[in-house]
Amino acid sequence: AGRGEKPPCSICGEVGNGVHFGAEACRACAAFFRRSVALNKLYRCRGDGNCDILSTIRCMCRACRFAKCMAVGMKREAVQKYRDAYGKRGSDVESPGSSSVSLPNQGDGFGPPGGFNPNSTFDSVEECGMPILTMLSQNYEKLQSVRRVVHHDQGSSVFQMRTPKAVSYKEANIVSSKECDLVADWILNSYPGFADLHKDQKIILFRNFFLPFVILQGGHFACIHNRSDVIILASGDYIDCSHPETFYYDPDGRQLMSSEDAVRMFASSFSIYRRNVTDPMLRDNVDSFEFFALCSLVLFDTGLEGQSEECIRVSRRIREAIQREILYHYRNVRHIEDPSMRLANLLSLLPALQRATRRFQEDVEISHVFNVYSVDAKFYEMCNGRF
């Protein structure tokens, strides 16, 4: 380095911040090493153990980043042990030249220590640029595992791969009813600040979210399987859009309207769903993190009836954080040339999702009022945001 220039970080190449724990390091890498040692973190590389660690992608592989910290001379014994595990959080004051940084609250019940604090600045992405989206992704994998148990057929083994089948509306209703508690638990354990909201505010957000989420998730499954002719459910079964009579068929024979008449009245909703949700998501190849971002923006809506000012503030903070995180994803993971345009296209899916949701609600309302086909009370309340 020239006169007056700081030497680069020996781990990621960013502008250094002095010697930390025995090696030249930037603030971000120093903080990463200190937290890793203090919390006794164990990382596993998903590659060959030789990942590039650069300032733009340093959080992509923590195992290789920590290994490089050790390789350049950082010493575990130089870390003040247990400082991060039990010290005061969120209001630490740094002394000049200190290598420590303020950490978020850890006792809020959201994931492992070092979780994201909605009351801290959302610009702080020193250790990882996508803390909320990453937590959503990790917990969604757990949700998928739980689904395999909850939705398995009676008499079958949960250890055997089940064969997907086309379902009727009654079977789809049962799946959605089971999903309610599972999705609520996923939300509760994935979003910083959600658990701290008053119970009535959680209900307001969730009842506005659940049906759009079910519809949006169908588009997500369509992208995974590259299918637009079926609507894949959380159970793995599907609605056959090419043969809607199978969906409106009542095996118990209690339906007042024939399946053929129901098709004539309601089947156009499938094309509306496909035009507004499935086709746009397939066309743009919406990935999992974009799906989680859309879920977040739908959940933390504002201007809802009965929504408190505190809930609005939390919702706005999380929405802003999610948009920053997805931009980080575009720039540093997918390396998209025009991240802002990609984000704009993603946000344009939300009005289309609302159109599909309203149409579905209208169908359920008509079927309920005119007793076209039986819909159980819980499913009816759930679809209309009243449960």
Automatic annotation (TrEMBL):
**Could you say which protein family the record assigns here?**
Belongs to the nuclear hormone receptor family.
Main localization, broad class: nucleus
PANTHER family recorded for this chain? NUCLEAR HORMONE RECEPTOR FAMILY (PTHR46011:SF32), NUCLEAR HORMONE RECEPTOR FAMILY MEMBER NHR-86-RELATED (PTHR46011)
- For the region Disordered, give the residue spans: 88-110
Domain named NR LBD is located at 135-386
Cellular component terms (Gene Ontology) = nucleus
What protein name does the entry list? Nuclear receptor NHR-70
Q: Where is the composition biased (Low complexity)?
A: 93-107
Q: Where in the cell is it found?
A: Nucleus
Q: Name one GO molecular function term.
A: RNA polymerase II cis-regulatory region sequence-specific DNA binding
Could you name the domain of life of the organism this protein comes from? Eukaryota
Which Gene3D superfamilies does the record match to this protein? Erythroid Transcription Factor GATA-1, subunit A (3.30.50.10), Retinoid X Receptor (1.10.565.10)
Pfam annotation, one family: zf-C4
Residues in domain Nuclear receptor?
A: 6-81
Keyword Zinc in the entry? The reply is yes
- Annotated organism of origin: Caenorhabditis elegans
Keyword vocabulary terms for this entry: DNA-binding, Metal-binding, Nucleus, Receptor, Transcription, Transcription regulation, Zinc, Zinc-finger
